Amino acid sequence: MITLRRSADRGYADHGWLKSLHTFSFADYQDPAHMGFGNLRVINEDRIAPGTGFGTHAHRDMEIVSYVLDGALAHQDSLGNGAAILPGEVQRMTAGNGVRHSEFNHAEGKSTHFLQIWLLPAATGLAPGYEQKAFSVADKRGRLRLVAAPGGVDGAVTLHADASIRAGLFDGDEAATLALPALGFVGVIAAQVLARSGRTMAAFWASALAIVGVIGTAGASLFPFIMPSSLDPNSSLTVWDSVSSHLTLTIMLVATLIFMPLIILYTSWAYRVMGGKVTAAYVRENSHSAY
Q: Is residue 12 domain-resident?
């Protein structure tokens, strides 16, 4: 179920130098009904006054993503990183087993407006890390551009968490959809309607489309966790987590390359063999058989 939460319903804090809107419970704003969503713990929309900022403070075991909307955010951390994050740029900091950093707005007469997103990592005690990338306006115009994801797929910054973040710019009638989930939902509904109307063959192919949508969605979501992103156990994010050995990661890679094509080929063959045969009468007459 999708729950609509309006912008004005978020928590609000005014510290003078910092004005912040909290989607989930944070600091002095506590709402038991809004503690997070899955591994998504924090979405803060912050505005930092000129010449102010967050002094040096510590984090651990958290994936922290900053997305600047306006102004500039100066970042420094205990890893030796120092950079200005500009509008359209995405910064990912892996707090891991411990990191200290500061964030400031050094501009005169201009506030810094940015989103701060915290996600619980897939494993604790990771080595701290930092990454920053720019995504152009054209890359986000009228579409949902992947900007953060496990394995850094499609040029996104790498997230050590079971999540992906997309950014888009939309005006007027511009719109974007994620087709695979929609295909799954539509296919299931169409199959039920067609089956009840007696159009069994059409219902069969509608169910096939639904399965394609479901498998495709699951594959797109889970692929970075099944396929090792690196043969280095300290940096690869897999279902076996970061303590996997080189042998384990190699076995996973080989198994994925062998079995994924076999599964796809078998599924295609099964649909070809069963196409046009599966009717209510056929099932009654052959209830003992594999098909």
A: yes
Per-position b or e across 146-180, b if 16+ CB within 10 A of its CB = bbbbbbbeeebbbbbbbbbbebeeeeeeeeeeeeb
Is 247 found in the same domain as 221? Answer: yes
* Residue at 291 is within a domain: no
Task: Name the β-bridge partners of 191.
Answer: none
Q: How far apart are CA 88 and CA 157, in angstroms?
A: 13
Residues 153 and 40 in one domain: yes
With the C-alpha atoms ordered 147, 240, 125, 128, is the resulting torsion angle positive or negative? Answer: negative
pTM: 0.65
CATH of the domain at 86: 2.60.120.10
Using alpha carbons only, how large is the chain's radius of gyration in Å? 24
Per-residue pLDDT for the chain (291 aa), expressed as one digit of tens each? Answer: 567 788 889 999 999 999 999 999 999 999 998 999 889 999 999 999 999 999 999 999 999 999 999 999 999 999 999 999 999 999 999 999 999 999 999 998 999 999 999 999 999 999 999 999 999 999 999 888 999 999 898 899 999 998 889 999 988 888 876 655 666 667 777 777 777 777 777 777 777 777 776 666 655 555 444 444 444 444 444 444 444 456 666 676 777 778 778 877 877 777 777 766 666 677 667 666 544
- Please, are residues 162 and 115 in contact by the beta-carbon 8 Å criterion? no
Domain C-terminal end among 99, 133, 167? 167
Domain that includes residue 193, residue range: 179-285
Same domain membership, residue 92 and residue 208: no
The alpha carbon of 273 is separated from its chain's Cα centroid by a whole number of angstroms, namely: 37
Last residue of a domain, one of 167, 194, 220: 167
- Please count the structural domains in the chain: 2
